Amino acid sequence: MLTQQLDQLDKAVTRRELLQQERSARVIALESRIKALNREEKILTATDQALLTISTNLLGKSIDTLDKLVTSGLKVVFDDQKMKFEAKVERYRGKTSVRFELNNRGIVAPIKDSYGGGVQALVGVLLRVAVIITLGMRRVLILDESLAHVSPQYVPNVSQLLRRLAEELDFTIIMISHDDEFASSADRHYQAQDGGANGTLFKLLQPSPKTA
Predict the structure, then answer these.
(1) Nearest 5 degrees, angle CA 184-CA 186-CA 192?
(2) What is the pLDDT of residues 143-194, one digit of tens each?
(3) Three-class DSSP labels, the chain
């Protein structure tokens, strides 16, 4: 009887020792895993900071180019005002965003809230130009009544700006407009006509008056 009790006690002790060894092995493995995760976290944090620094520097250069290009275009068109385009980079909770504002004679306001459709439309076109140049994309602009809200007094200036984009920056611009001022400044001018059963016909008027 005593021998059986001693055998059971030995088995219990052995089982307890095995459980303790297994527990110790698990603890060691978990500690090792935690250390590895901590190292990975430090590496990821350092990498994220490096990428943030690089992207911020690149974004800063792009923003500077953007400000200059859009401001230059605004000055060509709205030559009786002193507009300056400003893109503000903001970072909140790990996310980066850009806010567009116009500084007009010291008064700074968001473009979408404080300016008419003509200014907004022109800024939109100039932003597209900036993106195309920055990303090295094919320099083609397709404008379907995109500048229809520009006041008539500024339309000749817009035509001048589009000519400069074509001649100085090598842009191809395809524009649909009801304004004869835009049509007269184009290299090629097509007039839409009702073709009846044949649908809409386009008549080429070439050369245009200003390029003859």
Answers:
(1) 75
(2) 988 888 888 899 999 999 999 999 999 999 999 888 888 877 888 888 877 7
(3) CHHHHHHHHHHHHHHHHHHHHHHHHHHHHHHHHHHHHHHHHHHHHHHHHHHHHHHHHHHHHHHHHHHHHHHHHHHHHCCCCCEEEEEEEEEECCEEEEEEEEEECCEEEEHHHHCCHHHHHHHHHHHHHHHHHHHCCCCEEEEECCCCCCCHHHHHHHHHHHHHHHHHCCCEEEEECCCHHHHHCCCCEEEEEECHHHCEEEEEECCCCCCC
On whether the CB atoms of residues 102 and 79 are closer than 8 A, the answer is no
Least Cα distance to 175 among 144, 151, 204 occurs for 144
Instruction: Give the span between the Cα atoms of 169 and 179, in whole angstroms.
Output: 24
The answer to whether 101 and 109 are in contact (CB under 8 A) is yes
Q: What pTM value is reported for the model?
A: 0.65
| pLDDT tens-place string over residues 103-127 | 888 888 887 766 777 888 898 899 8
